[in-house]
Structures are given as C-alpha cells and as structure tokens.
Amino acid sequence: MIGDARLDRVVDMERFVLPLATLFPAAEAAALEADRHWLEPAFMRGDEIALSMHSVVLRVDGKVILVDTCVGEHKPRPRQVPWNDRSHTSYLARLATLGLAPEDVDIVFCTHLHADHVGWNTRLVDGRWVPTFPRARYLLGRGELAYWQSQVRCDPAANHGSYTDSVLPVIEAGQVDLVDADHELLRGLTVRPLPGHSPGQVGITLDRRGSHGLLCGDAIHHPVQLVRPDWSSRFCSDGSQAHATRRLLLEEVAERGAWLVPAHFMGLTGMRIRRTRDGFRPRDEAARPGGA
Ligand SMILES: [Zn+2]
After folding, report:
1. Is 249 helix (H, G, I), strand (E, B) or coil?
2. Which of 22, 29, 88, 263 has the most crowded Cβ, counting Cβ within 10 A?
C-alpha cells in the first residue's frame, strides 16, 4: 500500500538473466564487491544479473491501472530468443489471482514502448492482434509514440517489430489516449517525464494520504544502479541523459522516503532507499527477496 493505493505485481517472466556487462557496458564487477551481501543471490549471482518482467497493478479510487505489459505471448522476437513466440504463460492467470479479469482493467499505462513493456497490450485471436484489455484506455506518452512512429517509418522491424503487433492494434481500436508531462490520471497520480532510457519515457508520481511512490519504468533497471547510478543500460537511447534522470529521481525518492517502483527488480514491487556517501542503497538491505 502507498497511502490508500494498493500495488501488486503480475509477473510475466520470473527470471531473465543477463551477463552484467551485456546490460551495462560500463560496469566493472569489482565495483560491487562491498555490496554482494545484499545483491546476492536474489539480484545477481557472480557476473550474471537477474531481472523480472512484471506489470504493476495499481488499485485506487475504484480504478484498476495496469502499468507496463511485459513481453506477451506469440510475439515474433527472433532477435531475443527468451521472448520469442511464447505460449502457455501464466500472466492472465496471475492477474486472475488478484481477482481481476482483462475487462476489469480501466487504464493501461505504458511507461515507454520497448518490446518488454507493450507485449500484453494485445493478444492473438483468430490470427489477428486484438487489445487484451477490451474496456481499457491505453495511455501512451505523446513524445514516446511520435518517436517510435518516426523510427518505424524508416524501419518497420525497429524495436523487434513491437509497434506493429502491440501498439498499432490498440490505436486502430480507438483505445489510445496520449499524455503529456503533469497530466493527472487521478487525484495524486501525475505523469512524470523520465527521458533517457527512451526519448519519451514517462512515469507516474503517486502521492496519496502523505505517502509517496514513483513508478519509474526503466529509469532504473537493476539494484546495481543504486550503487552505480552512472551505469546506463546498453538499451538506453541516451545514456548520459538516462544517468541524469536516474540520479535526480533517486535523490528525490530517498529524500521523500518514497517507494521506488521499477519495472524489473526481482521479487519486489517497490523498494525504499537511502542516500550513502557514494550513491544509494536499500533502506533495509535485509528486506531483499529470497533466492529462487
Ligand atoms: Zn524494460
């Protein structure tokens, strides 16, 4: 709970493992030695880091808001084998364990339009991509959508082809609303620009009953970036802008005692952090998730 808002995770892929240097080209494992005791085994093992692919369901004021829609099923992603043509995932069953059917979702909010954040926007029915959430308004950042539309005009296969199978069908169904900075979704839920990982990434600032959170998409991918906020991912469109965005949001989250709610932290919906002499750390290092 953040104030009177309830947050739950819906996991699409439990554990997506990458070598540290594959995700963070600037990383040196030696910089993490003093932090292994809380990073291992949940968040990393040796030089491999683990990411979770999950949505966050936000329930507040009687509304159901699904933030980011992961990888999805049946999507052709030959350049990223673990994401390619998945089937029999438990994503919708996990949503059901929260008491939610697809038609209960009022708003789908995509922080950005990378293939691992739009997958469940659509599903394959009789050979056609249709919106998975039939009643939902899909909220997309105006600048983010414009950017990917310009990319796709040059290269239809850009971004693993995810615009065509996971974004265009919800536009054609008339279910998309574009949002700008400072747009208020509901009282205390405000759109926040987080550029750098992608040009138009947006998050949600949550302020309810004196408690605060920041749903921040991929502004931070992994807890090693608390230790080294300057490590931007290989997939960031502008690594130095991503670093500046990340540092600012980490400072703000630490100072306000807010919950950091990223898209890929293993086993956690949110984390509270504290500032240290050389960066940031979890406020409670013992509150890390178990191995598994
Ligand atoms: Zn991502």
Report:
1. helix
2. 263
pLDDT tens sequence across 229-285: 999 999 999 999 999 999 999 999 999 999 999 999 999 999 999 999 999 999 987
Instruction: Using the Cα atoms of residue 20, residue 158, residue 229 and residue 28 in order, give the sign of their dihedral.
Output: positive
Tokens 């691992």 found at: 116
User: Where are the alpha helices (H) located in 17-71, listed in sequence order?
Assistant: 20-23, 36-39
Q: Which residue has the tokens 């939610």?
A: 100
Q: How far, in Å, is the centroid of ligand 1 from the Cα of 219? A: 9
Is cis: bond before 41, omega within 30 of 0? yes
Helix (H, G, I), strand (E, B) or coil at 97: helix
pLDDT tens readout for residues 175-209: 999 999 999 999 999 999 999 999 999 999 999 99
* Cα 114 to ligand 1 centroid, rounded to whole Å: 7
Report the CATH number of the 6-287 domain: 3.60.15.10
Distance 290 CA to ligand 1 centre (A): 22
CA dihedral (95, 100, 104, 109) positive or negative: negative
- 178 C-alpha to ligand 1 centroid (Å): 20
